[in-house]
């Protein structure tokens, strides 16, 4: 009896050892034990992996000096967070040191992808002073809710549109441009390099290889029409799905290899928005100058060249860039700050800032104001939140000890001495529905003097100023259409004049009496409630009748072995469903989630704003660490995976629980009660 209790009851519990959750049934295998808190105060930091999620800026790894002049032992896996929902001073930011994991590597210049619930560490290079042999090529996932890391070893690519063949190793690249768009369930890593500091077994006699590929990551549960195995409606497995895009449009022709650039997402053009690649180069030469940019159409997996105009910046590597939307989405401003020139070894850092305004593709040099202007730097990270650009880290000739936390007001074009969190309950405010981070943002005078309109938007420049686009979404001449993906189900169409053509609310106070409308609504609600309760009463009588009939049949055959009706996995033959690991569905439950909008939804192409969960029998790369692995499937979270419950539900569902059904249970679950009645008949 004791052995039976251990076998059945114990696996249902988790043991918390004071540091991490260890599920004894293997569902959370691969969880890494945590260590000491990460230090917050350093002399300087640069080359970080950063992600802004739900009002928190996460910083992982990179390089840091504890004192001026330090040249060795700078690589680390420090893990920090910064709350952007509260005010803080630049001189005393409230950085929080999170626990350093004993697993994720000490790397620099990789990227932190993210969805609504997790961070994913991809790429990065290991220390060269002293030299550290690169570890296994893995993807690491950090659960925000559980504060735990999980390793997915040896990921493989999947075949798809404009990509290399599937089942190829996903190598660890460094110095590429990373980006995540959780509303699409997609992340990317553009360019970068492979060498002895990134790839296990790479000989120092083999030259570094620079990349021009676009590595795409489909987050767990999301479909992707560009990936063969996800194009039929099944979602990506728990380890996600990789596609190595190398043949997309001009990518196979006049398209240079590059590292140390940036990648920015712009919604509204094309079925899923576009990516714009800025800056970058090799260790000696730059990519095309910033007068010609590379634009990627996400839905069609195609790269295009786009000419720009205006005050073009000098070519550079290692800048940072963020984007903000005009309140009416008639224009988007990409802010690019800093960077450095080439060749390696004799580089000069920049302290200038430029704005690229979309869709006119015009460069505008910013006349930076304020008393807290940072020194010239490269290798820094940026994030946009509440209309303010937060700059973290950076290295330069004039920087000895500068941990590098600065705040730039993107509306007034002024460096501030504090971050001022906006007063809003989460990111559901209409002014922030088009692009995350744009709450409170106003179009600067320097921009609307060029594109028209005013601080609230209304841009009249709706096409590239350098001339008609030669290809891609900007060549269609169609105005962008932004579909709000959460909250109010509204559509904003930016017309030829750049003004919103959404239907305004009726402000006529002399119209219909508000009291009569309210009374009518209340009467309608009570009427609907009465009908619903009447239906539930009828259904309740039917279910009670079915229950009593079933009970009589059961008593009639009481001599049959109890195992006939045993709802355990062994007797039901549903052990797989009973033990399957239920993945957390990407959701938007947090009150502080950042939202995007984009044109269309293109449901006919297989793209969707909601994840489609894959079948349980689909192949999966299970997470593993310390020689253990997790359970297999990723069933839809609302699936019933209780022991003894079949996937489709049987005719006796709900009749074996040992008690007569109640009217309240019918009111709360009429669909289930109806299935029971129909099945019993």
Automatic annotation (TrEMBL):
The keyword Transmembrane helix applies. Keywords: Iron, Membrane, Repeat, Signal, Transmembrane, Transmembrane helix. Residues 457-476, 567-589 have a biased composition (Low complexity). GO terms for molecular function: enzyme regulator activity. InterPro entries: Gal_Oxase/kelch_b-propeller, Kelch-typ_b-propeller. One of its GO terms (cellular component) is cytosol. It comes from the Eukaryota. The chain crosses the membrane at residues 516-540. GO terms for biological process: glucosinolate metabolic process; nitrile biosynthetic process. The lineage of its organism: Eukaryota, Fungi, Dikarya, Ascomycota, Pezizomycotina. Residues 1-20 form the signal peptide. This is Kelch repeat-containing protein. Residues 453-476, 558-663 are annotated as: Disordered.
